[in-house]
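Reply to dn_fold:

You asked what the input looked like. This is it:
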Amino acid sequence: MKKFINCKYHHILIMVEFKVLSQRRKYLLEQIGAAADEIKQIDELLALLQSSVKKDCFL
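and this is what came back:
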């Protein structure tokens, strides 16, 4: 009986850890997506700045 209780308890801990890690993974993927969008916006702004410098300075 004690082994069954320990096994059941262990199973519950594994399921909780799985849920926590799944949520953390989801959060990190959302953060990566947001960072990728921000990087894309920065790249676009840098391209605009670079083109305006070339026009203004005849580079």
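The CA atoms of residues 21 and 27 lie 10 Å apart.
Hope that clears it up.
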